[in-house]
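Hey, resending since the last one bounced:
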Amino acid sequence: MTRFFIIIYVVFVNTNTNAQSIRDLDFLVGRWEVSEIVFAGTDREYTETGSRECSYYLDGSYIKCETQGIRKGRNRSYTFLINYESEKEYFRLLSLSSDYPDVGMSAWEIDSEAQIIKGRGLQGYGSIHRLDFRDRNKIIWQGLYPEANSNSELELKAMWTETATRK
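The C-alpha cells again:
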C-alpha cells in the first residue's frame, strides 16, 4: 500500500503596506548635542543645553533616549521611552524627568513623505509636538500649544524648540 502525504504551506502576507515598527525611528539612535529654547521672545525665555544618547532597549522593542542638560544653572535629567503600539497604530512616547513629578505620554505619527513626526499629548494637556527629521543629523523638535489671538481665533505658538545635532 502506498501512502501519499500532502504538505500545505501557509504564507501570511501583511497587506498593510504602511505597517510601521520601532525601526522606523532608527534615525534617533545615536549621540546628540541638544539645545532647547523655551518661551522664546518672552520675559520667561531661557535655554537648556546638554547631550542625549538614544539606543534600542528591552530586546529592541523600545528606543530609550537619556538626556543630561543644564538650564538656569541647574542640572536636569530626563528619559524618553518610545515604542510602537501596533493595535493603535502610533508610537507612544513616555517621558520621565528629574525636575517634574508627572509622567508624560504622547502619541506620535510619522509622515514619512514630509519627514516629520506629529505628536499629541495623551493626557489632555493640549500640547502638540512636531519633529522635523529631513536632516537625519539635525532634528528640530517643537512643542506647540494653542493660544487665542486678538481675533479670539486659536493659533499654535511654540512653547519650546529643541535642536538636536548628531555627535
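The chain has a mean pLDDT of 85.

Sorry for the duplicate.
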